[in-house]
Amino acid sequence: MKIFFFTGKGGVGKSTMAAVSARQLSRKGRVLIVSLDPAHNLGDIFGVVNKGKKDKLTDSLFLQEVDVHKLAQEYLHNEINVLTSTYSYLKTFNLDSYFSTLKYSPGIEEYALLTSIARTIGQETAFDSIIFDTPPTGLTLRFLALPQVSVTWIDRLIDIRRRILEKRYTIHRIKGSMSSEPTRLAFEEKDDDILCRLRALKQTYQDLNKSLRSSDCHVTLVFNPDILSLRESERLITGLNELGLPLRLLIDNKVSAENRDQAAEVERKMQALAPGVQLKRIQMSRELGGGANGGRLGDMQEEILPESW
Amino acid sequence: MPPRLFQLLKEVLSGIDSSHREQAAALTEVECQELENIFALLILGSFVGLPAPPSFLAIELLPFMERELEVLHCRAQDSGDMLAELCGTLGID
Question: Which residues of A touch B58 (CB under 8 A)?
């Protein structure tokens, strides 16, 4: 299964490029196109109203728009349910106040996004390709960095947790059966819920990290022949390099007769930044009127992705 | 009479044994509690204004952290009187 990410500054035509690529790929195999952008354009491009469920566009092309806000709420709701059933003396610690704090905790949306990507990659194995249309640069880099950052944190926490368990084991050995503790604390690594959960989380992130860095993952960067778009793309390339994510294709979109010289200049700079990455130039389509997010798929028949993909 | 005396002696001996074991484990217990406190602070730090790991991690682990929360709570309460705390740890009356 191949995974595609379409990234770039807002308004450069990510969604349109993703949609055209999806159509191209759907001639060869089953394709799922997932919109992670809160400003869902894919539904407009394909001319359908998607309500978070998988929509069948053609026999081999499916569309799904992810409602990040709803995902985050659902996730918190589930966690809170586990909490209330686990804690026997909720009132003592006023945990309710913790819960209301959780709703506003930063990072939950990125986490929800990441969870939805992981779930899609894990569950939708019947598709030959999955295309992700990502939100603007900042958020994309943050959630793509999340697996790596999390693994580092989780490693540290596992370290501390194991030291706690070692101490508990020592105490257990010294006191033997005479322990005055009302409840026996877990000292074996396999009995400790927290350590088990930490390890399970680590496994999930490592798997995700692996599939994001594999040769089946294709990150495509869409940009326009203008300075703002160039600057943001430079930052994105640096960010992707730092994360070790594979950039496979550069798309210079909205090139017209007037900006051809600038396009060549911007393309030269981009290729210098990302040597060896294929570049594709897309001409501005007159029918689209040049407006951002105004693309109608029927107007574009170009083959964007290399034949071999 | 002798069986009762024997019983008493046994209880005294087991009392001495258990008190020695308690004493030997006392410092390790303090250390363990301190580690649990640190663990709880690291995970739930964002609630008290410390730089914390991604908060979803806190939410993932929260369901299992009953004891750690308890320790954190006790430590926070006792921190008002550090001298008493220190004397308690070192066994000074």
Answer: 105
Across the interface, whether the CB atoms of A180 and B73 are under 8 A apart is answered no
| Residues A78 and A122 sit within 8 Å (Cβ to Cβ) | no
pLDDT value of position A86: 64
Q: Does B40 touch chain A (CB under 8 A)?
A: no
Using an 8 Å CB-CB cutoff, list chain B residues near A194.
61, 64-65
Cα distance from B39 to chain A (closest Cα, Å)?
7
pLDDT at A56: 87
Question: Where are any strands of DSSP class E within chain A?
Answer: 2-8, 31-35, 55-58, 61-65, 129-133, 217-223, 247-255, 278-283
**A246-258: pLDDT as tens digits:** 899 999 988 888 8
Residues of A with Cβ-Cβ distance to B59 under 8 angstroms: 76, 79, 102, 105, 108
B49 touches chain A (CB under 8 A): no
Token code pair at residue A262: 């600038």
Both tokens assigned to A28? 């060869």
Q: Is residue A179 within 8 Å of residue A172, measured between CB atoms?
A: yes
B18 interfacial to chain A (CB closer than 8 Å): yes
AA identity, residue A73: Q
Q: Could you tell me if A36 and A245 are in contact, meaning their C-beta atoms sit under 8 angstroms apart?
A: no
CA–CA min distance A89, chain B (Å): 9
Give the span between the Cα atoms of A205 and A199, in whole angstroms: 10
pLDDT-based confidence at A195, cuts 50/70/90?
Answer: very high
Query: Do B28 and A167 meet the contact criterion of CB atoms below 8 Å apart?
Result: yes
Q: Give the tokens for residue A116.
A: 């939805």
Between chain A and chain B, how many beta carbons pairs sit less than 8 Å apart? 97
Q: Is A9 left (phi over 0), alpha (psi -120 to 50) or beta?
A: beta
* Range A275-281 average pLDDT: 88
pTM for the complete prediction?
0.75
Read off the pLDDT of residues B21-57 as tens digits, 9 standing for 90 and up.
Answer: 888 888 888 888 888 888 888 888 776 667 666 677 8
